[in-house]
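Example record for the data management plan.
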Amino acid sequence: MEIDFVIEKFILVIALFAISLLIAMYSTYAERKVAAFLQDRLGPDRAGPFGILQPLADGVKMFMKEEIIPANANKWLFMVGPGLAMLCACIGTAVIPWGQDMMVGDRLVKLQVTDINVGLLYIFGVISLGVYGVMIGGWASNNKYSLLSAIRAASQNISYEIAMGLSIIALLLVTNSLSLREIVSQQHGFNWNVWYQPLGFLIFMVCAFAETNRAPFDLPECEAELNGGYHMEYSSMKLGFYLFAEYINMFVSSTVMAALYFGGYNYPGMDYMAGLLGPTWAPLFGTAIFFLKIFAFIFFFMWVRWTIPRFRYDQLMSLGWKGLIPLAIANIVITGIVIALTNNF
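Corresponding structural encoding:
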C-alpha cells in the first residue's frame, strides 16, 4: 500500500472527525440562537462577540465539572455507554462522498474515506448500533427512570428503522445501487432523487427525526415524565458525550438525506463551474454546496424542535407502525409499477 494513500486517508479521517466535533459544538450554539429568534429573545451573548465563544465555555464547564458515578451503578458499563454512543455517531461519515475526485498536484484525491459497494447497509448498521449506547447507559445507571427511557429509545428506534429501511428499498429500485458514491454521481446537475421519490424522502426524514431522538420524537428525554431520560445520572464529559452524539447524529442524518435525495455535491450548472474553476477548485466548490444543504437540514431540525409539540408515546408508536410502514410499503409498490411500465414502453 502506498504511503501517500495512507497519509491521504489519515488526513481525511482527522479532518472529518474535527469537522464533526466542530459542527456538533456549534450546533448547540445555533440551536440556542434559533430558539431565541423564534421566541423573540437574544440567546447567548456574553461569551465573545454575539456569544460566539459560548460552545467553548460550555465545553470547559463539562471538563471541569465533578464526575459522579452512582454507588449502585454498573461502573464499567456506565462508562462504556456514552463512549459507544459517541463512537457510533462519529464513524457514520466514513462512506459519505464529500465531493468529486480532485487534483492535488499530479495526484487524484478522492474526497471519501472509503467507497464500499454496500455503503447504505453500513450506514444502517451504524445507526442500529447507536441505540446500544443509550440502552447500556440507561440500564447501567440502576435508575428506574433511566431504564424506562432506554426502553423507550430502543422501541422507538426499532419501530422507525423498519419504515426507514422500506423507504430506502424504493430508492434502490430507482438507483440500482447500494454504493453512496454511485447514488450521488447519478444525481448529476439537477437530476436529484427527491423528484422521483418525494414520498420516500418524506418518510425517511420523519424517521430520521425519530432515530436521532429529536423533537417531536424526543420521548426518551421527556423531562416531564422521566426527569431527563437515559442520561439523568451522568455528569461531566460522560453527559457531554451523550449530548455531542445527538448533535453528530443530527449532522450525519442531514448528510445522508442531502446525499441520497438532494444530489450531495451536485448542483445546477456544475459542468460550467468545472470548466471555470478547474479540477482542483471545482470539487471543493461542490463540497461547499453539499455543506450548505447539510446546514439547511440542520436548521430544519432545530426549527421543528422549537415549533411542534412533543407526541405522546402511543401517538409515536401508532405513527410508526400504522402510518409510516404502510405508506413505505405502498411507495415500494407504486415505484415498482412505475418502473415496470416505463421499461415496457
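Summary line stored alongside the record: Residues 29 and 137 are 26 Å apart (CA to CA).
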